[in-house]
Structure formats: C-alpha cells, structure tokens
Amino acid sequence: MISDNTIFRMEKRKPIVIIGAGMAGITAAVEIAEVGHEVILIEKEAYFGGNVIKMNNYFPKLCPPACGLEINFRRIKNNHRIKYYTNTTITNVAGEKGNFCLSLKTSAQFVKDNCTACGKCLDVCPVERPDDFNQNLNKTKAIYLPHDMAFPAKFSIDENYCRKEECNACAEVCDYNAIDFSLKENQFTIDADSIIIATGWRNYDASLIENLHYDDFQNVVTNVEFERMLAPGGPGKGKVERISDNKTPKEIAFVQCAGSRDEKHLSYCSAVCCSASLKHALNMQTLYPDSKIKIFYVDLRVSGRNEDFLNKVKNNKNIELIKGKVAAIFEEENGDLLVEAEDILLGKKSKYKADLVVLATGIVPASPQFTLNKNESGFILDTQIEGIHPIACSKKPMDVSASVKDATAAALKAIQI
Ligand SMILES: Cc1cc2nc3c(=O)[nH]c(=O)nc-3n(C[C@H](O)[C@H](O)[C@H](O)COP(=O)(O)OP(=O)(O)OC[C@H]3O[C@@H](n4cnc5c(N)ncnc54)[C@H](O)[C@@H]3O)c2cc1C
Question: What's the CA-to-centroid distance between 271 and ligand 1, angstroms?
C-alpha cells in the first residue's frame, strides 16, 4: 500500500517526462501520476492518441478508438500531477538519471487554450488544406479541429495555408478572443528525473516499392489510408469510396508484406499487418456483405486472440486467402486494377481483377530529435543511458495490448527510487 509519506517523497522528485502521447505514452502517464508522481507529457501533434486514434477500430475486439482512449483522456484531465505540451518536440537532452535537463520547442499556435471548439470560425474561414488526420484524402478549412474526439478539444491553424492577419476572419467572429496571430514559437527547458520514450511508429513509404505503383495508380492505397476510408469520420464518412471515381469498391485485394521482410525495404516483420488486413477484410464484409476480398500473403502471422479472427476469415466464403507474393499491379483505363501473383499452393501464376488494392505497408520507428542508440532498423535500443526508457513501438513493432503492457512495465521502472 502507498502511504502519504511515500507520495510526499515522490512529489519531491523531479517529474518523469514522457515523449509521445499515443496509447503507450498515455498509459505510462496515468499510471505514474496515479501513484503520486509528477509527469510531463510531450506530444508533437496538436492532439493525443497517436496512431490508435486514427483507426476505424482495433483488434482483437474491434473496439472503436474511443474505447480505452476516452477514459484515459479523462484521467489526464482530472489529474493535477500531469502537465502536458502539444505541438512540442525535444531538441536536446543533457544530464543523467535523477537530473536530466530537456530543451523543448513548441511551434507557434495562434489558437489559445480558451478556445471552446464551438466551430464558429469554420463558417468564415475561406481557405482549405489537406486533412492530414484522414491521410490527406479530403480537405478541412485552414482552421480546424483535428478530429471529432480531439483531446485537447481545441482548434488548430495550419500556418502553411492560413492568411493570418491579412484575412483575420476567424479572429473577428471568435466570441472568446481565442485567436492571436502575434503568438510566436516558444523555446524553453524542463528538468526531469527520468525519461520515457513513446514516439511509436509511422508507415513505410509505399512509393519506394516500385512494382506496386502506389504513386502511379490512385486506387492503390496503404493500410493506414484504408483504415481512414473505413472510419465513420473518414473521407467517405463511413462509406468506402475509391479515390479515382468515388465508386464503392466491390473487389478488394490486400497485398501482405508490402516492403516488409524484404532486404531492399524493411528486413523485419511488422508483427501487426496480417491481423490488420484480416480486420480490414472483416470490416469490409460487415459494411458490404457482397464484397469479394482476396488476401495475398507470404506467411500469415497471427497469434493469441487474433487466431479466432483468422478462423472467422477462413470461414467467410467471400474472403479468399492466397499464398503468394504479388509481383506486379497493372491499371486499366477505368481505374480498375489487375494484380499479378503466383498462387504457390496451386503452382499457378495468374492476374486477378480488383477495384481497389490495399498495401499492408509496415511499421517504421518514429524517434525523438536527440541522439539515441538504435538497432540497424532504427528501433531504439532498450539498453540506453540509465533513466531513459524506450517503450512499445519505438522499440519494436507490437500491437496495442502489448504496447500497454510495455508502458506499465516502464512506468514501474521509472518510479523506482
Ligand atoms: C495498419 C495498422 C493497423 C493496426 N491495427 C491495430 C489493431 O487493430 N489493434 C492493435 O492492437 N494494434 C494495431 N496496430 C498497431 C498499433 O498501431 C500500435 O500497437 C500502437 O499504435 C502503438 O502505440 P504507441 O503509443 O507505441 O505508438 P503511436 O500510436 O505511434 O503513438 C506515438 C505518439 O508519439 C508521438 N510522437 C512521435 N514522435 C514524436 C516526437 N519526436 N516528439 C513528440 N511526440 C512524438 C506521435 O505523434 C504519437 O502521438 C496497427 C498498426 C498498423 C500499421
């Protein structure tokens, strides 16, 4: 049991800094703060939730991202021991365990914390920008709420598109005086007892896999784009539409290991892509029961509860699992596609028709801007300077459940005196 005396001693220590407010960073933050330690959470985006908040739903239970994240946002909001900075990155780290000093940079914001997200500014903003939350598949105004569940629930302004004082329309209609174009970038330092790195992952650049023509054919998309295409808050508002002609695709091909386990691209397995494609196929079947799906795989790597998931797919007559690597994709004049692959169980090379091709591109580590020891694939090594703890996907590819467990383990290590 934790006594008041223990909590008092913990509060006298410097805060624990967590870099990255995805599922892992958020989990570590609430667990550390709820045992009485000060936490500072640093996020480079304007909102929390990382890659999970961008999902349509997540396996194994196919819960919407609100499930798990919303309760944690409330725990953060209600805990005075958690301080956070969004739109912020770390530029330097000096010192040692118990006595780190971090240099931080927060980009110019223009929207102050008293924004109520009422949305009045949206009606008057004359400029549009690509919606990066939806993988640039649609547009938002230059002033925008990053997404419907955004925490902090505050509008952002895209500096690259907004005409600022020259237009000033949003500032003029704001009843709360929450917009200030004179605000500047802020650089400052903070002290830390220890540091947890939870910077997670980004998608492998599909345009580097030349034979799959991601850059050339509009109806070849990545798995993260497809996640948004399925989502109720996505570009089609829950209706899956092709990019070329807004037609709902009825025949979809999934290309597994797109770049993964390939010495020319990513030499490792990203651990989650097989389960992600099975999830996408089942989601597509729920939305469009007459859709026909083919999954081209090298090996199907699913474990634990996702095995049930694989059985569901195997029992679905509209989903076909084809063991074989895709050699090439061809485009027809109407935007339809032909996928060339060898079915190695039948020993036959064929071309298969598809309205849409989804590439299961792998996970690439995202890292903070300061120097760290990494393996040859860029994942941060666990054996760092004492007091620095990389966790979850910054360390190796893993699913949400494993990320949460890893975050809890790191929280326990970080609070030790
Ligand atoms: C297509 C696809 C589908 C998936 N579907 C599922 C699923 O259904 N179920 C499941 O269990 N898993 C799924 N996963 C895996 C899941 O996405 C990860 O397990 C999860 O995102 C790991 O959380 P994380 O917090 O480590 O990283 P992330 O979610 O990547 O969060 C990292 C956070 O750190 C921030 N950050 C990055 N760099 C910096 C920096 N320099 N400074 C400050 N902040 C920074 C990011 O903005 C982000 O908010 C899927 C993966 C893919 C590729």
Answer: 13
Helices (H) and strands (E) in the chain, counts: 9, 22
**Tell me: the pLDDT tens digits for 158-208?**
999 999 999 999 999 999 999 999 999 999 999 999 999 999 999 999 999
Least confident of 3-7, 117-121, 242-246: 3-7
The CATH number of domain 205-362, selected from 3.90.78.10, 1.10.150.170, 3.50.50.60, 3.30.470.20: 3.50.50.60
The radius of gyration computed from the CA coordinates of the chain, to the nearest angstrom, equals 23
Confidence at residue 4, expressed as pLDDT on a 0 to 100 scale: 59
- Topology adopted by domain 4-107+185-200+366-415: FAD/NAD(P)-binding domain (3.50.50)
Q: Which residues of 227-257 are buried (b: 16+ CB within 10 A; e: fewer)?
A: bbbbbeebbbeeebbbbeeebebebbbbbbb
Percent of the chain with pLDDT over 70: 97
- Token pair in block for residue 382: 């666990």
Q: Report the pocket of ligand 1 as residue ranges, CB < 6 Å.
A: 19-25, 42-45, 50-52, 55, 58-59, 89, 198-201, 223-224, 227, 272, 276, 279, 363, 366, 368-369, 392-393, 398-401, 403
Residue limits of CATH 3.50.50.60 in the chain: 4-107+185-200+366-415, 205-362
User: For residue 397, how far is its CA from the centre of ligand 1 (angstroms)?
Assistant: 9
Residue 416 is predicted with a pLDDT of: 87
The residue whose CA is least distant from atom 13 of ligand 1 is: 399
